[in-house]
Sequence to fold (250 residues):
Amino acid sequence: MKSLDGRRVVVTRAAEQVESSVDLISSVGAIPIVVPLLEIVDEPDGVTELAALDLTAVDWLVVTSPNGARRVAAMLPSGLQRPLVAAVGAATADALPRCDLVAQTQSAAGLLEVFPTGSGRVVVVQAVDAAPTLVDGLTERGWDAAAIKPFRAVTATPSSEQKRDAVAADAVLFASGSAARAWTQIFGQRTPPITVAIGDQTAAAAEQAGLKITIVSADHSMYGMLVALNAYLVTATSIEAGSDGSGTGR
Fold:
């Protein structure tokens, strides 16, 4: 990804998730600008409900993010195959001790595409402000689906230096609608020249919050966003070269 060499890319993920993102951004030659916009905090009622959950009465446990995975990992019975476990994306699956189904398209809609039709009880572990896409879709497929919400994302407070570096960067990556909404609370509509959303749902949330999204990643992952950003920069460079007569595109 040569077009990313030296590019300053803002990663807005919560502090608990930022290390892997920084490593990935650095590995493709870009310069990570760490500006955590969210803090993940426990939701007391949801924590209590999750702790009281009888997993022997659950057919599927669906986990929507690494934050949820970290909260259920210790609960999963060792050596037992029930309940079956599904994850929205590889990063979530990697945070679980085992996983039986992973969405290829890393989104709620992507998991619904591969989730079987059936009956029985499904528990979805997700954030307080998560959309009801999974619960509604699973219910339509005949499952008795309900959500437990043991955590929420709250807006963090970046330092003055982080704010300055963020708006001076070349691009910003939004991995969730919550991050996009937090950005507008802190920066308003000021952004780096290029804004990247991890998928259509995040892009819609960002635009609803007043942000203009430049790129929507087809692969709903941090790596996918970097691939999409690189492709955009390659195209932009080719167009610029052709317009000034230095390219061969005329």
Q: What stands out?
A: The radius of gyration is 20 Å. Residues 25 and 226 are 8 Å apart (CA to CA). The longest helix spans residues 222-243. The chain is about 40% helix and 20% strand.
